[in-house]
Structure formats: C-alpha cells, structure tokens
Amino acid sequence: MTPPNQLKMTVYTALFVALIAMGAFIAIPLGPVPIVLQNLFVLLAAIILGPVWGLACVGIYLLIGLAGLPVFAGGTSGIGKLFGPTGGYLIAYLPAVFVTGALSKKLKNSMTGDVIAMVIGSIIVYAIGVPWLKIAFSLSWQKAVAVGMLPFLIGDGLKIAAAAFMGKKIRPLIR
Amino acid sequence: MAALNPFMFRQGNSLLHCLDTRCKLLWVCMTSLFILKADFLACFIFLGVLIVFIKQIQIGVKDTLWQLKLFLLFLGFIFLARALTIPGDPLVFFHGLTITRQGLNQGGLVALRFFLVMVTGLVFSATTRPASLKSAAQWFLKPIPFVPEKRAAVMISLALRFFPLILQQANETANAIDARCGNLQKNPIKRFVRLTLPLLKKTFLSADHLILAMEARCYGEDRTDPEFEPSGKERVFILYSLGFWLFLFFFSIRLPPVSLNYILVIREIYIDPDPVLL
C-alpha cells in the first residue's frame, strides 16, 4: 500500500496538472507569446507542492502536452510546440518551479517569502524564454525583450499577487 | 456532466477504438508535429480525414461544436487579430480598420491549425479509455531512468479525470455567484477572486474525497502490469499515416512556402517595420 502522504501528494500533483492545463486554455494572443493563466498555476504549484512534487507536476504537464493532448497555450500541443518560439518558456517552468518551491520552503512559506520566490521563478522563466525566442526569430536583444517580456510584466505582477493570496488560503486545506 | 465534457470517452468499435493506445499516442504525437508545419491544402485534406474518423466514432458534431463554443470564439479572436494587424494588400476598410489579404490568409491558417490540433486531441480522447491511457503512458515511461513510471501514469490518468470535474465545478460556482447577484459586480479582479477561491476550495475538497476513497481501497503502486490487446492493424495504420503526411509535404514544397511566409510576416509586424528580405 502507498504511504498516505505520498498518495496525497500524487493526487494533489495531478490536480495541479489539470489546473495548469486549464490556465493555458484561456490564452489571449498578444504578439508571438500569448498571455495565459498557466504561469499563475505553475507558481502556485511550486509554493503549495514544494520543489520535488512541483517539478513532477510540471514534468507531467509537459509530457501530456508532448503526447498530443491539447494542454498548451490556446489548446495546442505536440513536440513542435515545445521546440517552437515559445518552447523556451515551457521548458523554463521546470527549473522555475523547482527554485520557487525550494525558496518558498526555505523562507518558511511566509507570504513575503512566497512573493520573493515567485519573482525569482518568473525571472528564471524569462531568462530562458527570451533568449529562446531571440534565437527562434533571429531578433536583437532589445526586440526580444520588447516582444517576449515587457508586455507581460504588469500581468505577471498581478498573477504573483493573486498566487500569493491563493497560496495563503489553500495551504491550510492540504495539511 | 457529459454536456460539459466533449473530451470524454465514448463506447464504440471504430478503427480508432480498436487500435492499441500506444499506437494512437504515437499517431497523435506525429500528427501534431506535422500540423504545425502544414499549409492550407494539407490542413484541409487532414480535416477531411478527421471528419471521417468523427463520423465513425459517432460524435454529435453540432453538440460538440456548441460545447466548444468558447474555444471557437478564441479561434475567431486569433483570426480577427491577425486579419487586422498583418500588413499587406487591403481588402476591406471599416471605421479606420483594414483587413488585408495576407492577414486573412495567415489568420485563417493559424486558426485552422489550432482547430485541427484540438480536434485530433478530441478524437484521441473520445476513443481512448483513461485506464488504457495510463497503461500506455506507463509503457512509454518504463525505459526512462529515475522516473517512477507507475506513479507518473497514475498522475496522468488522474489529471485527465480532473479536467471535467474542474469544468463542472466552475459552472456550479459561477451559477451560485450569479444566484447571489455576483454578476452585477463590475470589478474584474473582484469577480476573478470571487470565482477562483471557492472553485479552488471545492476542487481541493474533491481531491481529498478521492484520496480517502483510494486509501479505503488500499491503493498501492505494486499492482499487476497492464496487458495490451493490439488489433494487428497498428503497424499498417502508422505506416499509412506517415505516408499520408510525407505525401502532403511533397506537394507542399511545390506550393508557396506558407510557414516561411508566416515567420516573415511576424518579423515585419513585431520586429522590423521595413520589409525584410530573407
């Protein structure tokens, strides 16, 4: 029989995979990189599940998308999407969720700690996603940042605030 | 519940129902890869193939399209956004907005590709039991070192079961908010918080109930490995599919390179205002 805590985390991880996919389904196409709620749930998964289970959650999500189920932004999927212009953002979720989860744990799951961890997680996403976009479209650095980062910063700030608030409300439910 | 979930499994004995899930997974991977590179001609021919599959599966096309109305609206939005923003030969002027021939072309192609990827996913999930998808995922993950394939496969099957549950609960929560005149609230942030928090609480409670049910049934990972029942048509199906796409691409390279044109147009809009010569 599976230990209770492991079973619990398995089910919660699966739930977060579904939530990330739902968040990706609601996509607003603004330029080559759409605005989605996917990263809100990725960051939430990191602070709620922690580094290891958060990593498993994003890994499973990417695997489902790779297998062809329409779970990436706007209901897309497939290996082509992962190696396309926005693939860097998707792959960056792996290190981002791990670092965010580890930092949040280290900062004792306080709301300020969560916000700091999620800001660093978002920086990691852009640190990998923007160069990937630059290479995919052969852009200059200024243009890659203008297209792949600047339009999303305000939205990201709001998403981080929302995720910190949600994290505070949800944590007591899963203990 | 059925009305909320067009991606649910449907009983049947069509070709796709009979095929081994591992073969179908391979087919979906291959197809989604090709669709992203396909031009109009290839997309329309593949749409014809998908319509044949949908007829075989006996999915109600009208009902399904109605259930996917939000996704279709999203596609319409993508189409309009591209048609209005991509520069080129003007076709229609309307209150200062210009729709260009190139915009219509590119918007239509992108929307059609997204639609095909989604319908392929729908055909796959309508013909595949979640349990057999779990088994296939476990089979594919087995050779990968350091990946607990059984646990990962369980997570995949549970995630697929959570999709309709979240949709159902979102609908219930939205109805409850409307019943309390929540629809009169004009602030979008307040509306988002009032919908999301109860929804997340409800989904986590459902997850807790599932955990209790699994514990009560002594759930464990050391169970007998699944058995597959190949129909014998798998190899032929994959070879035909590969041949089909290679044939379409053979024709595509003789026609104007649509995908290259797409990159060029994106460069023009977002990056270089001056014409780009590749």
Description:
The complex is a heterodimer of chains A (175) and B (278). A two-stranded antiparallel sheet of chain A has the order 1-2. The longest helix of chain A is centred in the C-terminal third of the chain and has 27 residues, at 111-137. In chain A, 73% of the residues lie in helices and 2% in strands. In chain A, helix 5 runs antiparallel to helix 6, helix 6 crosses helix 7 and helix 6 (111-137) runs antiparallel to helix 8. Chain A has helices at residues 4-25, 38-49, 51-66, 79-82, 87-106, 111-137, 141-148, 153-170, and strands at 27-28, 35-36. Chain A is globular, with a radius of gyration of 16 Å. Chain B has helices spanning 15-18, 21-35, 40-57, 61-67, 69-85, 101-126, 130-141, 149-179, 188-216, 234-252, 258-271, and strands spanning 90-94, 97-100. In chain B, strand 1 (90-94) and strand 2 (97-100) form a beta hairpin. Chain B is flat, with a radius of gyration of 23 Å. Mean pLDDT of chain B is 79; it is low at 271-278. Classes of the chains: A mainly alpha (175), B mainly alpha (278). Chains A and B meet through helix 1, helix 3, helix 4 and helix 8 of A and helix 2, helix 5, helix 6, helix 8 and helix 9 of B.
